[in-house]
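We emphasize that the prediction below concerns an isolated chain of 291 residues; any contacts that depend on oligomerization or on bound cofactors are therefore not represented. The input was used exactly as deposited, without trimming of termini.
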Amino acid sequence: MNYHYYPGCSLEGTAGEYDHATRAVMAALGVELSEIEGWTCCGASAAEATSALLALALPARNLALAERQSETMDVLVPCSACYLNLKTVEEKARKHPPILSRINSVLVAEQLNLRNRLGVRHLLDVLATDLGPATIRPKVVRSLEGLRIAPYYGCQCLRPYAAFDDPEMPTSMEPLIRAIGAEVFPWRMGGRCCGASHMNTQREVGMALVAGILEAAHGADAIVTVCPMCQMNLDAFQGAVSRSEKMDLHISILYLPQLIGLAMGVDTAALGLQMNLAFNAELKRKVAAAA
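Result of the prediction step, given as a token string:
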């Protein structure tokens, strides 16, 4: 099982632990990731405000590079923002051939040509659809029985392209959580927005959204996510939100492959757990007790 791998900028910076965990867990599951040679930024959210064509050309460049390496593998993307940008190119180029021609008029400067023959896949999609509980369960060496895990999807891996889950009632993480022995914490916040960049531009909006998510997770042992922006907001602002709401809203925030890796016995350093801001002592104790 092989995939092109597009890590994106966040996974080389503030979300380095997500990259470590993704590579370690996929290797342990027998999946080969081939990093796209010469990949560059997908444009994040800034490119679209500058130029509609630039917002398509930047992610398209990475897809064209992947095609040049091989047209037989899908592109696996862990970052939800990167996934959305690359998926947008795939969808628009498929539905509107003139858009593909316009993109290629830009890429020709690098002797690149996008044929749009690759599927763009979120890491969660691959874990849930291509691998699934049947592949993960036999790899479990440490059942996480007794842990209550709140699955948090965020916005961009679900919207606007409902490629592998229901945007309003997502469930794709749940079989994976059960496969490692943990319990799915019952809540309805999985597809709610965390505020994204409002934490920088409209702090009061971001704080209110994060507070709602953290309050709803009361009683869970951890929130598990698949988005660097969501993880940053839920992980880094717990202290500020707790002070603002005058209640203790601290909870462990892990990336999904980190949780799966713990159950599979992958070394914690390989999972990048030392980089998490919110991996509390109580969860560490419970995980150690499960060994």
